[in-house]
Structure formats: C-alpha cells, structure tokens
Amino acid sequence: MFASRFYNIVIPVISVILGLIAGAIIMLLFGYNPISGYAALWNGAFGDLYFTGETIVKVTPYILSGVAVAFAFRTGLFNIGVEGQVFVGWLAAVWVGVALDLPMILHLPLAILAAAVAGGLWGFVPGFLKAKFRVHEVIVSIMMNYIALYTCNAIIRSVITDNEDKTENVAESASLASEWLTQLTFSRLHYGFLIALIGAFLMWFILEKTTKGYELRSVGFNQNASKYAGMNVDRNIVLSFVISGAFAGVAGAMQGLGTFQFMSVNSGFTNIGFDGIAVALLGGNTALGSVLGAFLFGTLKVGALNMPSAGVPKELVDIVVALIIFFVASSYIIRWFLQRSKKEGK
Amino acid sequence: MKQRRFFMIFALLLTIGLVLGACGTSDDTASSNEDGGSEDQNDSSESGNEGSEESTESESNSDFSVAMVTDVGGVDDKSFNQSAWEGLQEFGSNNGLEKGQGGFDYAQSESDADYLNNLTRLVKNDFNLIFGIGYKLNDAISQVSERYPDRQFAIVDSVVEGDNVASITFKEHQGSFLVGVAAAMKTESNKVGFVGGTESDLIKKFESGFRAGVKSVNKDIEIEVQYAGGFDKADKGKLIASNMYKQGTDVIYHASGATGNGVFAQAKDIKKNDPEANVWVIGVDRDQYEEGQIGDNNVTLTSMVKRVDIAVQDLSTKSMNGNFQSGVIKYGLDDDAISVATTNEKAYTEEISNSVNEWKQKITNGDIEVPSTREELQTYLDSL
C-alpha cells in the first residue's frame, strides 16, 4: 500500500522533471537558451502580483474540470464531455446572472447551482445511455460537446441577446469578482478559486468518506463484484456522470461569473475540459492531485505567453506540456525502471 | 483494467495530438521569425546606406516603442493581422527600431481569454503605444486603457471611448461595393457568393456593401451569403466554398480572415483539376493575389484592400512625434486606405476596371451613399 502511494506521487513528479528536461533539450536543439526560456516562463506566471493573479484565474477552472474527469474515472467512466458540460454551465450561470435580480446572498449561489444543474443534466445523458443501453460513454459525451457548443451559441445569439456576439455582463449580485482582490493584483482574480478548492474537497469527501462514494469506487474497481454485493451498478453510473458533470458545470460558472462576467459566442472549444483530462491524469485521479496538476497546467499556460520575450516560441511550451503528459502516460516505463533499480540496489 | 488501458491509449493520442498541433503552429512562428530575420537585414542594410542619418534618427526615437496584440487569426493569417504586422515592421525599419522590447513587437492570442493578458504584458514591458487588432479586443482594450490612463492604446475596427484610445475604423462597405461591381461584371452564371467570418456588425458592413455593389450592376444576380462562425476556420471555409461552387456560383467574396484560406484552397483545387473552370475568389484586407496562384492560373479576381498597415504606421508616427490623437479615425476611399487590387490583369479586365472606377467616382463624389447595414441595404435596393 505504501509502495503504491509512493509511486503515485513519485511518478508524476519524475514525469514533470523529464518533460522539462526534454523541453530544455528541444530548446537547445533549436538554438534557444533554455534557462532564459524557463526564467521567462516563471516570470510570466509569478513575476508580479498581476501575473500571479492571472495564473490563479487560469488554474481555477482547471481544478474543477480536472476533478470532474477524475471523479468519473474513479467510477470506471471516461467523461470526455467535460468540455460541453463547461459550456452549458457557463451559459446557465451567465443566464441566471443576467436575467434575474436578487440579493447577492441568493443570486450568486443560485447562479452557481444553475451551472451545476446544467452540467449535471448534460452529464446525465451519456450516463443514462451507458447504464440503460450500454452505449459507450466516450462517443456520446464527445458528441454532446458539439451539441453544447452550437446550442450555447444559438441561445446567446437569438434568445439571450438580439443577434449580439456576447451577453451582457452578469449583475453585480451574481459576480464572483472582488474589488479588493482586483485592487491588490490588478488582475481578474476572483473568489472562484475558493469554490474550486471546495469542489476538490467535496470530491475527496464524497468518494472517501461516504457510503455512496464507496459504492461508486467499488463500481469503478469491478462492476460484476459490485453487482454481486448488491449494489445498483446502473444507478451508480448515472450518478457518477451527473456529479462529474456538475463539477464541470461549476468550472463553466467560474468563467462566466468570475473571469469574464459574460459569455460570448465561441467559434471553437475552450479546451478547459480537454485539459482537464490531462490534469486528472497527472494528478492520478485524486482530488489533491487534480489541484496540483491544475496548478502546473495553469502556470505553464500563462507563463508561456511570456516566453516570446526570451525569444522562445511559445509553441514550445505546448511541446513541453505534451511531453509531460507523454511521460505520465508511459508511467509503466518509469515504474519499471524504478523497481528494477531498487532490485539491483538490493 | 480495460478502462485503464483505454485511458492510456487516449492519453497517448492526446499527446500525439498536442505534439502535432504544436508542430503545426510552430511552423507559423518559424515564418514569422523569418520575417523578423529579414527585417533585421533590412535594418542593417539601411544603416549601411544612410549611416549618419540613421544614427541620429534612432537616437531621437530610441525611447519610443510600439506593439500590437493579434486576435485569434495570428500574424500569418494572410489578411488582417498580417497587414497590421507588416505596417509595424515597416514603421520599425523606417525608424531604426528593432523587433523586441523597446522597439516593435507583437503578441499572438490563441483564444479570447488571452487578449487581456497579452495587452497587460505589453504594458508591463513598457511599450508606449499598443494596438489591439480586431473588434474582438474591444472589451480588453477598454479595460486596459482605463487601468493605465497614462499609456496610449489604439483599436482597429471598433470604437472604444477614452482619452488615451484611438479607434481606427475603415469604410469597408465602400470597398466591398466596388468588388461587388467587379464580381457582377465577371460572373457568367449570374450567381455570386459571400463568405463571412462571424455574423457581426463589422462583417455585415462588408456584406451590405458587396450586395449593393452587385445589385447596382445587375439586379438579377443571385447572391448567396454564408457565415463560417469564425475567422480561423479554414476547413469550414473550404466546405462552404465547395458547396457554393457546386451550385454554380462562380465568384466568391470572402471577408473572413484565415477562414478565407479555405475558400482559396477550394477554388484552386477546382482550377487544378480543370484549368478552364470559371471560379474566382475576391480577397480581403490585403491584396491576396499570391494566394490564388495555381500553376499558370490565378483564381484571385481582385481584393478589397484595406490598408491596416497604413493606418497602423500613420498612428505610430503621430504618436512617436507626440501627436497622438484619441477618438475615432476613419479611413476610406479618399485616403486610398481602401482600394481595389488590380494585380490579376488577365482576369481583372479593362472593362471591369473602368466600370469600377466609374462607381468609385460616384462614391467619392457623394452621388451614392453605400449602405453599411442590412437595413440601409434594404432601402438602397428598394431605390434601385
């Protein structure tokens, strides 16, 4: 038990280091200075309060989308539909934020709840189809992404606004933005970060501390055994997808109520959901791991914008990120090496 | 176990996708680096030619720097953003500035979320004047300009209020009207098409002008209008063009940035298989003659040239000399900031050219008011 936990921590760390080293080698090969490149990356992400704030802004939805993917995966389900669930959550939150006029203590929770419900509904469809008809959830959830994207665009265009590109800003009573955080950092830093951390805590709590969570994990380990033990596998599959979708929906709410305060017509995916898959993978499908993974991804993404100032093309950061995922994915190789060297040591 | 293996395979696919994706775009940077490189060469050759003059010049201007933030199209979109970047490069080489901090530079946005970040980063890098290229940066520019009132900003194609913001707009409807005339003269099937980026007020301006131009020549010509839903969707542009050409449309005007590259690709495919095919594309923003070259043929009939580069240079020079001017600056046919390209002499015949010039005269004289919205278009069409 200790050994497997040890490996779960060590392997992502080694993967990240290997990824960074490989990135440095690539920079060297193309004639860039890797030290100044990584220094620019660091400064771009944490150089001053503004950039630190923006990094946290970027991290916030990643935490929730990572948690969403990880949650479903612990139940043995693969939710690629996080992207779409983010969209519907974003739309629902903004819609509630724009259309209603309530005191903040009701309005803000209602907007976030609406996002969670919308995301949950969007997750319900693939979950239900999987449980009822054994339709593979990957295919359904991918399709649901496109439905979400274009439906949201259509609703923004013709229902919420009159053929505008974006909605109005959400009412102040539904906004997560904070005056003093903005004053402090000049960035778009908002309270959503706390909500993301609460989300991660909730995931841990549900899975590890409740009976239902035990059932969900059990279904993830072995469906047949769970059924034999008297659990309702189908219901657990649907439930898992709904909770996963709710997390993703709240990730969308972070964008809508915090970062942007509105929703615009999107011509493509935001990649929050897809990056969530990588975040969850890096975090070993745990709550804490997702938070750490989200931090790494957010830092890389925001810092990358600053890399051209050191002459390094920022596409290189995409390569480094890809390499990190690659090394995590090939964790069997790292594990094999570690075990082998241990044996030789003995 | 099966799930886990599946997860691994998917992760691997994701990785490959990321790597390949990164390769794709790193190509762009390679080319933009090339641009930068040749720019440097220009600089050095220039300093060789006019040594003393250059040194005094760079001394006086060494404290001025200018940068721009692209929208999602990127500086190699062969259209709008590229034109602006060319303007900045030209400005830089004329004034002995170097690419990078303290000279001239650009920041590329991968998504709408990057605008504010990129702008703020350029402010922090102490650029004096910062351009936001494209109406999509409207919100970001207005936020940043409020936060940094002592800096100068400019936005192209949109209007932002503020004492430190210049809003550069163009009378695209006039240019679109003229290429509409050209399209109407060129079409044999009496069917022409329009491909727009997103259905925004700006692109509707192009559409309205174009439709008015076509109908002014011949009321019976059918105009098919389609929007791709984005300025970076070359695949969708190709699909739309393919459908239009199949239905007999022979001239397509695109106002869709990099999406238009797909329109060109489709026209060139058709032309490649059948050199006699009667397919034409009308380019936008820059003279897109080079885009249309396929073998000995060229599918670019003409282009609605919108000299973003002139506007960018103009304002940069003013700002450098301390004459920064906030408020709305309009460029149109009169300033030659909007024009119709005549590079494809084979296709763009004398006859077309003469008639375009006639209409141009009428517009500049004020004989006709070119519609810039769909409502105005309706009134215009009713009056024909």
UniProtKB/TrEMBL annotation, chain A:
Pfam families: BPD_transp_2. It is a multi-pass membrane protein. Keywords: Cell membrane, Membrane, Transmembrane, Transmembrane helix. The chain crosses the membrane at residues 7-30, 50-73, 80-98, 104-125, 137-156, 189-207, 237-257, 277-304, 316-338. GO terms for molecular function: transmembrane transporter activity. Signal peptide: none annotated. It comes from Pontibacillus yanchengensis Y32. This is Branched-chain amino acid ABC transporter permease.
Automatic annotation (TrEMBL), chain B:
Gene3D superfamilies: 3.40.50.2300. It is found in: Cell membrane. Residues 1-21 form the signal peptide. It holds the Pfam family Bmp. Residues 65-373 form the ABC transporter substrate-binding protein PnrA-like domain. InterPro entries: BMP_lipoprotein, Peripla_BP_I, PnrA-like. Residues 27-64 are annotated as: Disordered. It comes from the Bacteria. It is a lipid-anchor. One of its GO terms (cellular component) is plasma membrane. Keywords: Cell membrane, Lipoprotein, Membrane, Signal. PANTHER family: ABC TRANSPORTER GUANOSINE-BINDING PROTEIN NUPN, TRANSCRIPTIONAL ACTIVATOR PROTEIN MED. Belongs to the BMP lipoprotein family. This is ABC transporter substrate-binding protein PnrA-like domain-containing protein. It comes from Pontibacillus yanchengensis Y32.
